[in-house]
Every structure is written in C-alpha cells, then in structure tokens.
Amino acid sequence: MREVAGSIRELGPFIVTVEPAELSIEAGKEAQVKVLVRRLWPDFKDKVSLQHLSWPGQIQLNNFDINGDQTEATVTIKVQAGTQPGKHTLALLAQGQVPFHKDPASKERPNTLVALPSRPITLTVTAPPKAP
C-alpha cells in the first residue's frame, strides 16, 4: 500500500472490511473475497462505491458498489500470470454520499462525499507449480 490516511475524530459513517483478511493466490489465478460494509450512522442509507487503492498493476479488482439495502458483496481478485511471488498489503477505497452538517442540531443535512480506506488485507502471491 503506497498511501495511508489517518485521523482521530468522531465515529465515521461506515467501516469496510474484507474477509478473509489474509489470503494466498497463485500467479495466473483468481480468488473470491467478501467485502462487508457496516453503516454506523443511522441516517446513512446510500450505496458505497469501492475501488482498489493503489494496487500493483498485476493484481486486479473491478470497481463495484454495495447498495444501501446491502451489507456485503462477493468480488474476484485476479493475479496475472508472471506476477512476482511475495506479500502485498492492500486496501480498498470506499466512497459514499453521507448526510452531514457541522452543527449536530441542524435539521438540514446535505449529502457530502466521504472517502475512507478499508481495513487492510494481506495477499500472498505464490508461484505456479513447475512442470515436471
């Protein structure tokens, strides 16, 4: 992971996690993972859009959404053939339009774009077995 943002503030509107948090994929193969969204603010009911956050080019994941009535999605991570074996720490970038106003007593809460990283996952790329 090349970028990490950190902040200590009040409770955020949502949390994104990937299960399993550690996985191993052989170069040239793919694996499915489950992406979970926990909406922590009761008035946030919109979709969360997700994309990879600065992943190496040989590891691919298509952009996807988790709709407001869903809490999870199953997605496929693909590792291109010829990818160098090793460990990678990866994260997703999650974005959602969240009702927010600086004044908690305000009745008006216009939608504000919130972008948060997911909890990191560890991906181990392994070499394919050698032909006899």
Features of this protein?
4-stranded antiparallel sheet, Immunoglobulin-like, mainly beta, 132 residues
Description:
The chain is mainly β and 132 residues long. The chain has one domain: Immunoglobulin-like, CATH 2.60.40. Helix content is 0%, strand content 49%. The protein has no helices and eleven strands. The strands form three sheets. A four-stranded antiparallel β-sheet has the order 1-3-7-5, with no helix packed on it. It has a four-stranded antiparallel β-sheet with strand order 6-4-9-10, with no helix packed on it. The radius of gyration is 17 Å and the shape is elongated. The mean pLDDT is 91.
Brief overview:
With 132 residues, the chain is mainly β.
CATH level-two architecture: Sandwich
Relative helix content: under 10%
Total discrete domains: 1
Q: Can you tell me the overall shape?
A: elongated
- SSE order, as H and E? EEEEEEEEEEE
State the low-pLDDT regions, or none: none
According to CATH, what is the topology?
A: Immunoglobulin-like
Number of strands: 11
Task: Describe the secondary structure blueprint for this structure.
Elements: E1 14-19, E2 22-26, E3 30-39, E4 48-52, E5 59-60, E6 64-66, E7 72-79, E8 86-90, E9 92-99, E10 111-117, E11 121-126
Parallel strand pairs: 2-11
Antiparallel strand pairs: 1-3, 3-7, 4-6, 4-9, 5-7, 8-11, 9-10
